[in-house]
UniProtKB/TrEMBL annotation:
This is GntR family transcriptional regulator/MocR family aminotransferase. GO terms for molecular function: DNA binding; DNA-binding transcription factor activity; pyridoxal phosphate binding; transaminase activity. It comes from Phytomonospora endophytica. In the C-terminal section; belongs to the class-I pyridoxal-phosphate-dependent aminotransferase family. PANTHER family: HTH-TYPE TRANSCRIPTIONAL REGULATORY PROTEIN GABR. The keyword Zinc-finger does not apply. Keywords: Aminotransferase, DNA-binding, Pyridoxal phosphate, Transcription, Transcription regulation, Transferase. Residues 21-89 form the HTH gntR-type domain.
């Protein structure tokens, strides 16, 4: 088995492009991909850390950290005295490896992964009330096959809401209700592919699941650096791409805001190059010390496709998103959605329309903003008290904080060590498309934990860090 694995590992590593990151990260990615694809079957005994380090040409500690990370994610299991084995059940092929999959039995004392709001704050009573009122008001005819664009009442409410809250310029007929933001991005990628695009620019760092959607729909993702002012528009021009995905209001994951100068430069690039900007406005409702900047779409509706979702405000399980795009992309996306699923759930659309119209959404956001701000403050204060060398970066917004670690820290190895201690955080380097992150960091979510739990998590992180660096 070991001889077979040694040969297989060389083949796996050869699939990784030489410029695609450090050797240690390439080894981790190769192992993960091979397990998920089934090339390494469940129950397979993996090489010892010493043997694998020799094969991969990395330090043994790097392999140990990779094994810890894969263990934390549920891909492998360690049997004392026997070795490391591929788990009997692993995430299926085709799902995104961005973050550890949810475990029915919590594997971490403190789960600080990103992307999940405080699910316990979901307004169950208000939503149920809205659902009852919406269903009572729906005529029988509305229960037939739906309008592919989405329930007209919801499109009208959303157009008004987005115009009021985000400065989006859209009439109700220009709004397409989607199955979450993921479907909106997939529909746009397919439309771009139909137009002849083969490459699309993405921010670096960015959400890896975004890249998976783009590549899964036939587009090569080209990374463009992000700094404290947002995406580097000069590098974007030099890339030759004629489409880009940006998180301009609150860059994911760095948390910076696209500067006014970069906003104007980006819009100028789109106009000059006849290009499309896809604006992923994933969490603009969550601002704690300043108003959110207006959406880019309102400045150039013919050049910007606006994508939004309730996954960060209400719950991902609702699978409600929307797309407001230039007319030619709207028509193309609508045709594809008609072929794909003929629209969404009329009852869910009617419920959300009622929830918006009656002020339930505004009241929910007002309440959760206060809670999230207190939780963010508690996290930042605890870091200052227990880990003063760790510096939070980005604006006070969203559901997460990027923590800048001391220079020279291996953030991937540290995240693996934290996972072993029971704290689930994500290394900033895992969001990078190029070789190195702008700085070593951890991406830490605070939304789903109370202030007391966040303080306890930081205490455990500090003790784990001190032990690692002693």
């Amino acid at each position: 088995m070991a001889e077979h694995w040694h040969a297989a590992l060389e083949l796996l590593l050869s699939d990784e492009a030489p410029g695609d990151g450090r050797r240690g990260r390439r080894t981790e990615r190769a192992l993960r991909a091979a397990i998920r694809s089934g090339r390494i079957p469940p129950g397979t005994r993996l090489p010892s850390s010493r043997d694998l380090a020799g094969q991969a040409g990395v330090a043994r500690g790097t392999v140990t950290a990779a094994y810890r990370q894969l263990t934390a994610e549920g891909y492998v299991r360690t049997r004392p005295g026997s070795g490391t084995f591929v788990a009997a059940a692993v995430p299926p092929a085709g799902t995104t490896p961005t973050e550890p999959p949810p475990d029915p039995a919590p594997a971490f004392a403190f789960d600080l992964r990103t992307g999940i709001p405080a699910l316990s704050e979901f307004p169950r009573a208000a939503w149920s009330s809205a659902a009852k009122r919406a269903l009572t008001a729906l005529p029988d005819s509305a229960l037939a096959y739906p309008d592919t664009s989405g329930l007209p009442a919801l499109r009208s409410e959303l157009a008004a809401y987005l115009g009021r809250v985000r400065g989006v310029a859209a009439a109700s007929e220009g709004v397409l209700i989607t199955h979450g933001a993921a479907e909106a991005l997939a529909l746009l990628a397919q439309s771009l592919r139909d137009e002849g695009h083969r490459r699309i620019a993405v921010e670096d760092p960015c959400y890896p699941g975004q890249v998976d959607i783009l590549s899964g729909n036939g587009l090569e993702a080209v990374p463009i650096p992000v700094d404290e002012s947002g995406i580097d528009v000069g590098a974007l021009r030099r890339s030759g791409c004629r489409a880009v995905v940006v998180t301009s209001a609150h860059q994911y994951p760095l948390g910076v805001v696209l500067s006014p100068e970069r906003r104007h430069a980006l819009l100028d690039w789109a106009a000059r190059d006849d290009a499309l900007i896809i604006e992923d406005d994933y969490d603009a409702e969550h601002r704690y010390d300043r108003p959110a900047v207006a959406a880019l779409q309102g400045l150039a509706p013919d050049r910007v496709a606006y994508v939004g979702t309730v996954s960060k405000t209400l719950a991902p399980a609702l699978r409600l998103g929307w797309l407001v795009g230039p007319s030619r992309y709207h028509r193309s996306a609508l045709r594809r959605k008609e072929l794909l699923n003929r629209g969404g759930s009329v009852i869910d659309h009617a419920t959300f329309a009622t929830f918006l119209r009656d002020g339930g959404h505004d009241r929910h956001l007002s309440r959760t903003r206060r809670k999230y701000r207190r939780r963010r403050d508690a996290l930042v204060e605890a870091l200052a008290a227990h880990l003063p060398g760790w510096r939070p970066t980005g604006v006070a917004a969203g559901l997460h904080v990027v923590v800048r670690l001391p220079p020279g820290t291996d953030d991937s190895a540290l995240a693996a060590r934290m996972a072993g201690a029971g704290v689930n955080v994500i290394a900033l380097s895992r969001y990078m498309r190029t070789a190195a992150a702008p700085f070593p960091g951890l991406v830490v979510s605070y939304a789903a934990n109370t202030p007391d739990r966040l303080r306890a998590a930081v205490d455990l992180m500090a003790r784990t860090y001190r032990t690692a660096t002693a």
